[in-house]
Amino acid sequence: MPQTVTRFAPSPTGWPHLGHAYAAKVARDLAKQDEGRFLLRFEDIDHTRVRPEYYDAIETDLHWLGLDWDGPALRQSDRTTAYAAALEDLRHIGVAYPCFCTRREIEDEVARMISAPHGPEGALYPGTCRRLSEDERNTRLADGQQPAWRLDAGKAAEITGPLSFTDLRHGHIPVDPTLLGDVVLARKDIGTSYHLAVVVDDSFQQVTHVTRGEDLLPSTHVHRILQTLLGFPEPVYLHHALVVDENGVRLAKRHDSLSIRSLREAKLTPPDLLARLP
Ligand code: GLU
């Protein structure tokens, strides 16, 4: 059996809260069950939302909680060349197409459609730019229009054939390639996306077990497709429950009173805090 490798992959875009503590603990505990490695990765591709103090807060809070990671933390902002290479591979396979639509144009198109495809989080991309001819694409590119790049989910599914993944909590799950539709692989402004970066880095860091909140379960369908197209190994998954407040609402930035630093300032000890996790 290869050594278990897990990772905690927060975005440094807010003060870490109990939800982060739980996600880190799940990943750490799974790795330490068999003397494996627990890694830290900053998912900081979106420079418009990242702030330097949040990197420090994540490291400070993890140390304070005794959730120390192995080796240096990886920053996705240092990995743009790897994401560009993966996008190039997907273009070469013929499953990535340029999308020139603005958000507004997509909303208008969806509103015009009689039955627009929907996913777990609302309307999916209606495929407008997938239908552009090669000439139309080249004209727009030659005009200097900067595109986003999208996955042609239908074509990708034809290439990969049926896929599935194993989740330690939810069991065996067949991949539904239509679930999130033609997702963005590379945003215009940052040249990559959550989906592409996470798949490239889990492979690069040799992560064997991907643990994360169950809100991200739909994304795993896309990730299995990308892993297969890019020739990456298949990790085992564990989509864990989300930490919620007393009203059952998942924690977010507005819950500053449940941030780890606020709880520390309120004189909670690490065992007190860990005892509040599910
Ligand atoms: N960066 C994501 C988050 O903060 C986690 C991504 C993942 O684990 O795949 O929720």
Automatic annotation (TrEMBL):
Which Pfam families does the record cross-reference, listed alphabetically? tRNA-synt_1c (PF00749)
Question: What protein family does this chain belong to?
Answer: Belongs to the class-I aminoacyl-tRNA synthetase family.
User: Which Enzyme Commission number(s) are on file for it?
Assistant: 6.1.1.-
InterPro entries per record = aa-tRNA-synth_I_CS, Glu/Gln-tRNA-synth, Glu/Gln-tRNA-synth_Ib_cat-dom, GluQ/Sye, Rossmann-like_a/b/a_fold
The organism is: Luteolibacter soli
Gene3D superfamilies associated with the record: HUPs
Gene name per UniProt? gluQRS
Q: Which NCBIfam families match?
A: PRK05710.1-4
The record's keywords, sorted A to Z, are: Aminoacyl-tRNA synthetase, ATP-binding, Ligase, Metal-binding, Nucleotide-binding, Protein biosynthesis, Zinc
Glutamyl/glutaminyl-tRNA synthetase class Ib catalytic domain segment(s): 5-263
What EC class is this? ligase
Protein name as it appears in the record: tRNA glutamyl-Q(34) synthetase GluQRS
Single GO molecular-function term? ligase activity
Has the keyword Metal-binding been applied to this entry?
Answer: yes
